[in-house]
Structure formats: structure tokens, C-alpha cells
Amino acid sequence: MRSGGRKRRLHFSKIYSFTCGRASLKEEHSQIGGPGFSRVVFCNEPDSFEAGIRNYADNYVSTTKYTLATFLPKSLFEQFRRVANFFFLVTGVLAFTPLAPYSAVSAIIPLIIIISATMVKEAIEDWRRKQQDIEVNNRKVKVHKGSGNFDYTEWKNLRVGDIVRVEKNEFFPTDLLLLSSSYEDAICYVETMNLDGETNLKLKQALEVTSPLQEDTSISNFHAMVKCEDPNANLYSFVGTMEFEKQQYPLSPQQLLLRDSKLRNTDYIYGVVIFTGVDTKVIQNSTPPPSKRSRVEKKMDQIIYVLFGVLFTLASVGSIFFGITTKDDINNGIMKRWYLKPDSSEIFYDPKRAPVAAIYHFLTALMLYNYLIPISLYVSIEIVKVLQSVFINQDIQMYYEEADKPAHARTSNLNEELGQVDTILSDKTGTLTCNSMEFIKCSVAGTAYGRGFTEVERSMGRRNGSPIHEAVTGGNDDTAPVKGFNFKDERIMNGNWVDEPHGDLIQKFFRLLAVCHTAIPEVDEVTGKVMYEAESPDEAAFVIAARELGFEFYKRTQTSISVRELDRTSGKKVDRLYTLLNVLEFNSSRKRMSVIVRNEEGKVLLLCKGADNVMFERLAKNGREFEEETKEHLNGYADAGLRTLILAYRELQEDEYREFNAKFIKAKNSISADRETLIDEVTDNVEKDLILLGATAVEDKLQNGVPDCIDKLAQAGIKIWVLTGDKMETAINIGFACSLLRQGMKQVMINLESPEIKVLEKEGDKDAITKASRARVLHQITKGKAQLTASSGGSEAYALIIDGKSLAYALEDDIKSLFLELAMGCASVICCRSSPKQKALVTRLVKSGTGKTTLAIGDGANDVGMLQEADIGIGISGVEGMQAVMSSDIAIAQFQYLERLLLVHGHWCYRRISSMICYFFYKNITFGLTIFLYEASASFSGQPAYNDWFLALYNVFFSSLPVVAMGVFDQDVSARFCLKFPLIYQEGVQNVLFSWRRIIGWMLNGLTSAVIIFFFCMKALQPYAFNQDGKTAGKDILGATMYTCIVWVVNLQMALAISYFTLIQHLFIWGSIAFWYIFMLAYGAMSPTFSTNAYKVFVETLAPAPSFWLITLLVPISALLPYFTYSSLWMRFFPLYHEMIQWIRYEGRSNDPEFCDMVRQRSLRPTTVGFTARLAARTNIIRR
């Protein structure tokens, strides 16, 4: 196979200066064989004895939480680390002893059901992960079987030393050492989006000595030994040597192909397996899937500890009282409690052994009062969370029709956490953006061209009340859209630029775009259309724009660039050849890129494009004619969120060029450590005295709705950080595009670009470099904190921007707290050039340092560590790769759906779960305290107030279904109002609805209800005849009456607490009450041996008695009156934010813009980001 019909055979080393980048630093490779550099790979000999004894990992990768062997013990541990479950296990065991006040069956069966249901749910979720692992591990790749024969094998079977053949558009199955490719000089294109989030293709090149291995047969006799570094997490480094034919060849990252990156635009490559499975760099950057629990659930455990304290206190007090009473039970032969038969009791009521009896009573009391602890709480919450997840999955407004992808909650454990997010840590590429650049505007010779609008401009227009309509653009929309080109302006399209006042400069401008780049053209042999492969998306957008506007770059050789352009004189297309003399490459310190070419007239031209802050200072005095107009346009472009570059040129004299070229070649051929510095010095001397042509404006196309989403999240008070592997300039531009940054926002920049550090880098003293770098980072953080302190109380907003090298020092133990303080004081934070490990460490720092809920969102394998480290991991199910989704808690198709996921579903889930838990404790305290009060009135004799099955079924049939319905369906405000008043989300962040004050309030409500129910029932029944036959109420009548009142009270309390009634809630509330009466009839009709003291209690005793019906009317009203009075006064005079919105809806003022703006204005603060804050900041400047 040879390039699939491509006719070019370029030696890219001459264009891309690969020869300059080949590993040659002896000090690095001198470490081979030492600690951390001990790996030895025998190429093409995976079965050799030497390879076998090294016992390297296999290539099987697992993301599951359990295995078949660990599922039972680990899952049981997960369940019984919940303190309530463990307690019920202990009491379930005690229920089999004579101490139990009820039957063992009623105690142990509910626990078994609850634990089993939860374990089944965990097993199903982990099985889904297992299925995804099976799909990845069973992918096929061609591997060398011997004698030049290649055959397909599964990824999981690959071993270190195997030679594989990977073909176009396939993922690399392991970390491979590139041997050769379909190109003669052994280069290949690699897409690393799953690793670093970047969509632009990277170029890799094999060693020259292995480049002839281009056929299957040539592999059969290839044998070499590679010695290299041990497995590590650094994606951007690789140190090793290859011993081939008794010669040593240094290896560098240029030869390493990482697992989960993809081969693009190369027909095939041969590579040798270096790292497999858990040893690969992408897996080294991941962390094991954690067992995540929500903050609400953790706090619920604390409440249960409190209830345990109450339970043990009540049991202790009762036991002490019981022991004292038992000791004095027989006095002078007279039995006080004759009905307990203390004279014939062995232990339980024996006055002679009162201390032992008290201890036994304590154990009995623990079992009797355990109804204070809601056994059905966990299983009810599990059911509710699963149903909430179904609603999230089925939400049509989070369904991405274009890709047929709905939202998918992969775990239901964290639903309520979605309503408490304080900080979002987001990847950039593929998460905020669509991975595409579009040429949209330009400024040439002081004139602005391009009538298109960016997403930011559209969002600001909608906010202003004057939405932008594309119809005003004036372009011809009949033509098919061109990827990378969204430019509309009839003045220069279709060749009309020749009639413009500065037509000659426009020609030079687009000619520069067509020539100044490193893109490679590909001609489709069927359609004849030219496509481009470029190192960056914006560079591709430039050559596409030039092509669409009449300057078509269609051919590149090692020494020339061919452009088909419109001739101004003849008006016809002509082919022009530009001899390529030099390429002065872009890097982050130069911030510009140039080419030197010779045109057909023999003139030597330097064509340059770069960032405005470096280009304007390089202009000649006579080259600044349009500088002011261009700067004005640049400010407008930046405000519209566009990425800008300045274009300029100069003509070189022959002798000047010859002198430059000699110095440039000498610098490139240098093998010293400061080679890059020498090259920069030479290029600095030639890239000067430039003549300004204009500026380009490219939109790094955001996903639909990203600015709106960020604006709403910012108004909700959520902080947003961007962690990206991109360059600082790219990240800053995206920050402007999505309104995380704005004009006038002060930027705190932390980087290592200083003359002192550059000098130390030349000297090569690593210890001195580390010390100086650390000191510089600490100084910049301290300076930034001082700026924040000086402006505290003011209206200035700050943005923190830090690069990956600086971040490594900022995350050190003695600096990270200062760094976090600075970051939390800024309106937005952008971390550039971040490795996957750094992303995870930053996430951990924010999570542990603030103690608040963090959410991480990303789409690539480079985001996996971050997603797993955060409290909530959101995976974007993008067009490439599923690694992020497989490691996430929830998957969505677009970033914009985060708005609805958090502000609507998150708020609802948090409120529902919080209210549900509070209500559970309320109803169990109400029920449990009546048991305690009854036992106290019966001198703590260990007798329950209620029948065994009344006790067992209280939490199952008579009070749980309404609370489940509330947890699934209740809404304090509608979805529309959640989005209209986003600050309501802060109720979750500040934990207003699940604070200790609110929890204790509900407990006191339960205490009040229990006291009212018990004493009212006791006083109403005790002194009088219960019915017309003159019978007084016994234990059976009192217990059934109190139980009936409790069923009414807890269900009516639910009706008062609900904000949004549905048919199901009505059915469950009134159905639970009705079912109690049906149960009394059915259970009472059973044999007395089974129904015991409930035998026909309702039919024969309760129903015929008017006093029973009067009590069940008045007692519930009395018990609910305190809550009703308190909540009415609180809502009227001290309403929470959601209650204010409920008043707006109730009073019909939801469409009153002035009133709604007044309520919504609480969302805006000086440090808020988003286009609303951008507009407010601009308005404030105008007012000043």
C-alpha cells in the first residue's frame, strides 16, 4: 500500500524542521538504565525468554468498580458503611433472641429487601461499564505473526515487543514506537483530541534508520532493543534509545504514538509496542473509579448519628428508671407491678437482679425505639433517585437530535449534588467549542469587512432586546456552506475587491493568507476540490478563506507554493509560483509565524502573521498608515469573542536575505542547548520594519448556546474554571468568546516568561531553574493577591490565567493554599497547557480547599482524571471517543444542556431529596416518640404501644409512598421560573433547605406532633367510657386510635409541605390513609392467633364509637396547627428566594418585567461573568 493514490512525496523534515527537533541532548539520554529508566523492549520478539522474565502488564483495561470476586464483599461494605443499615443488621440479629419486643421476621426481611435492591442496582450500573470495556478490549488490530505475515488480533492480546500495523482512521491500541509509515520519510499525522483535547493534527516522524520498513515482508527480519523510561503519566516526554544493528539511536516524543490517539491522513504505520494496558500514558493519567457519595447523603448519616444519640439516651434513661423501679418492685411481700410477676421472673423483671434486668431492658429498648431511625429511608431514596434519573434521561430539551443522543445519568447516586454545584471545571476543546474555526471578519487597509455575527454578538443582541437577524447580512445564502468559512461581504466577494479603493493591499492581504502557512493541500481526484490538512484549525480557516475569496493554494512541493489567483488587470485566474525559501515557525514565545518567498518577479518577500502585541512593535514608520483604524477594529473583534491576527509584510534585499539565511542555517544546525534561542535572535532581526496590511478575525466556533449557558450559570452564582491543554492565547480568546473574559477585566497572568529564567535555561542548571521558577510563581501569586486585596469592595473583576509549567509549582503543598485563595477571589480562572494529571490535581484542590461541590465537564480521555476527582463528572458524548463518557457520572451531548441539568433538574432534585429526608425524620420521630411516651407511661416495661404488624408496616405502606411521590414529582417553582430567576439555585449551594436549622425544625415539629397525639389521645380515652356499653379504652383501642391519628397527621403534613400536586400525589396521600382503614378491616378479620390484639378492633370497637371519629378529626388538626401557623408567618414576612418567586406567580406578576428585573437583579454582582455582566460593565463605564 502506498498512500492511496496521493501523488505527493514530500520530505517534511525540510519544511517542518524535523531535523532540528531530533533527540540529541546527551544529558537526558545518559539516564538510560538508571532508576526510572529501566524498561527494556525486545522488538519483534515478544516470546523471547528475556521478554518473558520482565513480566510486563497485559493490554487489558478495566474501568469497572467491581469484579466477580470483589462484588459481594465490596458491595456489602458499601451498604453497611451506611450507619443505619449496620444498626438494623445488629437489631435484626438481636430480634432472634428472647429480648425482642416483636417477631424476628418483621425485623430482618425489610433489611434483606433493602440491601438486595441496592446491590442489584449497583450490579446493573457496573455491568454497563463492563460492556463498554469489553467493546474497547475486543477491538482488532493487525499484529506481526512472523515471516512478514500480519493478522488481526484483539487489543487485549497485545504484548510488549509486538509489531503492529495501524491503518488510517484507527486508534492506536497501545503506546507505540513509530518505525515507519506510508510516507517515504516516515512521517504520520496523529489526532490527539482524546489526550489533550486539541483537534489539530500532530506530525510524528520515525528514526531515519527504520523508515525503509514500508512493507509487511520487510518487518520479518527486523530486530532491535529499546531501552527507555519506566511507565509514567507525562504525555509530553519520552526518553529512550534504540539499539539497531549495533548502533545506538536516541528516541524522543517525536517517535511515540500514544494509546487512544488516532492515525489520520496516513494510510498505515508500523510500530512496536512499548507500553501496554495500565502502563500506557493515558491510563497512567487516570485514577480508579471512586465511590462517590453526595454531601446530602453524608449529612444524612450525621443526622442518623444524632438520632442514634437520642435513641441511646432514651434507652439509657428508660433502662435506669426501669432498673430502679424493678429493684423496688417487691416491698414487704407486696408487688407493685403484679402483672409483670416479679416473684416468678428469672431475669427480665427479677428485683434481685435489677442491674441485669436494666441491661436487658436497654437492649429491648434499642429494638423498640429503633423506629426513630427510618429503615425505609435509604431504599426510598434509591427508588426516588432512579426515577429522577429516568426523568433526566427522558428530558426532550436535553436531547441532541443531530447526533441522536439524549442525556444519560450513568449513576443516580449524585442527583441532589447537581443542585449544589459551587464551581464548574471545564475542558475547552470539544466541550465549549465545536472543534472548528470559521473565518468571519477581517480588516484590510483600515476598512472592516465581514457582515457575519458571532454567537457572542447574537447573545448580547438578545439580551439588549434587539435580536440580530441574519437577513441583514446581505450575503448570498443560496450557496452551500463551506466549513471554516462564514464570511459575508459583497464588497470583496466574487472578485469585487478589485474595485475597492485599496485593491492592491487587499490582493497582498489574501495572497499572504494563501502563502504564509504550513498547510498541505489534498486534491480530491473525483471532484477536483482542494482540501487542506493544517497544524491548527485557524490556519486551515485562513487558507480556506483565501481560496473562497479568489486565492486558491493548490500545490506544495519541498521548495515551492502554487496559488491560483485573480489577476487585477485581466480579471482572469492565473497560476503563480512562489519559491519557498524559509519557514519561521510559530511558537508561544514568538507569537508569530513567517515565510520568506521569492515571487515570479524575483522579489524576496517576508510574509508575517502574529499576535497584535508583538506585531505592532515590529512595524516600520512608513508601515503604520492604518494602525489606529486596525486597532479599533481589533477591539471590536475581541469584544465579539473573535481570535485575531495581524498581517504584515516587507521586501528583503538580496544581500540582506543572504546574510540572514547564512545565520539562520547556522542557528538551525546548532546542537547546543540554546539552539532555539539562537534561532529566535536571528529571526528577530529580520522580522522588523514591516508594513501593516490588516487583521483577521476567526471565530473558534462555540457549541450552540454556550454563552447563554455560561451567562445563566454565572447569574446562578456558579464559578467557572477552564482547564485546557491549549496554548494560553487560544484559551484567552475562547474566554472572550464565551464571555468568561471581557474588556476591562483585569488579568492576573502567571507564567515563567522572564529574562532571568531564560538565562538560566541557557546555562542548563536545572536546580537553579526550579528555584527561580518557584520563586517567580510565588511572587506573581502574592502580587495578584495584593491586587485583589487593594480592590476589595470595588467593582473591578479579575481573571486568573496560568500556564501548565507555572501550575506545577502553584500546586506544591506550601503554595497551593495561596493559589486557591487568589483563584477564588477572581471572577474566572483559566489554566492553560494543563496535563490530565494537573487537571485532576486542580479539581482536587478546589474540592478539598473550598469544601464545596465541584463539577468537572469534559469530552476526552485527557479529562478522565478530572471527572473522577470531582464530586460530579459530566462527560460530553462528542463525535470522537467515549473515554470521558465511560468515566462520567452523567453524559450530555452539548455543554448548553448543563444549564437545564443544573438549574432545573439539579435544583428540583436537591429540593426534593432534602425535603424528603426532613419529612422522613419528622414522620419517624412522630411515630417513635409515641412508642417512647407510651412505654414511659407503662413504667418502661418494654411493651410496644402498637401491634407487631402495625410497627412493621408503618414505614412500608402507610407513610412511605407519599414521600416517594414528593421526591419524584414535587416542584417549588416551574422549569421556566428556574431559568428566569437563576439565583434560586443558590439555595442548594448554600444548603438552605438542608441546614441544621431546618433539620432540627422538622425534628421539633415531629416532637410536637408526637406529644400532641399521645397526650390528647390518652386524655380523651382514659377517664371516660369509650362506647355506649361503658367500656374504657385498653391498650388495643388506644394503640389503634393513636396509630390512626398518626397516619392522618403524617399524610396531611405531606399535603401541606407539597408545592406542586399531581394525580399520583393525591392518589398516594389519600390512598395511604384509605389503605390503613382497609388494612384494619382485613387484618382484624384474621385469626386471633395471627392478628392478636388487633382482632376485629376496628369493626367491633372503633367504628361504632363516635368518640373515635371525633378524636381522629380534632387531634390531627391540633397536631398540624403549629406547623401551619409557623410556615404561614415565615413565608409572609421572611420568604426564601423560591417563596418570593411563588408570590410572583401567585400575584400574577410573572409577566411584569420591571418587578421581575428587580427580583432577578440580586443575581448580578461586579465579579459575575457572562454577557449580561459584560453588558452591565459596559453600561457602568458609559455612565461614568
Automatic annotation (TrEMBL):
Presence of keyword Magnesium: yes
UniProt catalytic activity: ATP + H2O + phospholipidSide 1 = ADP + phosphate + phospholipidSide 2
Domain P-type ATPase C-terminal: 885-1135
Gene3D superfamilies: Calcium-transporting ATPase, cytoplasmic domain N, Calcium-transporting ATPase, cytoplasmic transduction domain A, HAD superfamily/HAD-like
Keywords: ATP-binding, Hydrolase, Magnesium, Membrane, Metal-binding, Nucleotide-binding, Translocase, Transmembrane, Transmembrane helix
Residues that bind Mg(2+): D427, T429, D859, D863
Localisation per UniProt entry: Membrane
GO CC, alphabetical: plasma membrane
Xref: InterPro entries: ATPase_P-typ_cyto_dom_N (IPR023299), ATPase_P-typ_P_site (IPR018303), ATPase_P-typ_TM_dom_sf (IPR023298), ATPase_P-typ_transduc_dom_A_sf (IPR008250), HAD-like_sf (IPR036412), HAD_sf (IPR023214), P-type_ATPase_IV (IPR006539), P-type_ATPase_N (IPR032631)
One Gene Ontology biological process: protein localization involved in auxin polar transport
PROSITE patterns registered for this protein in UniProt: ATPASE_E1_E2
Domain of life: Eukaryota
Main location per the UniProt record: membrane
This enzyme's EC code(s): 7.6.2.1
Amino-acid positions noted as binding ATP in the UniProt annotation, renumbered to this chain: D427, K428, T429, E539, F586, K609, R643, T724, G725, D726, R833, K839, N862, D863
GO-annotated molecular function: ATP binding; ATP hydrolysis activity; ATPase-coupled intramembrane lipid transporter activity; magnesium ion binding
TM region(s), chain numbering: 83-101, 107-124, 303-324, 358-379, 920-937, 949-969, 999-1021, 1041-1060, 1067-1086, 1106-1126
Domain called P-type ATPase N-terminal: residue spans: 41-108
Keyword Transmembrane helix: yes
Cofactor(s) annotated in UniProt: Mg(2+)
Active site: D427 (4-aspartylphosphate intermediate)
Topology within the bilayer: Multi-pass membrane protein
Family listed: Belongs to the cation transport ATPase (P-type) (TC 3.A.3) family. Type IV subfamily.
Function: Involved in transport of phospholipids.
The protein, known as: Phospholipid-transporting ATPase
Organism: Rosa chinensis (China rose)
Lineage: Eukaryota, Viridiplantae, Streptophyta, Embryophyta, Tracheophyta
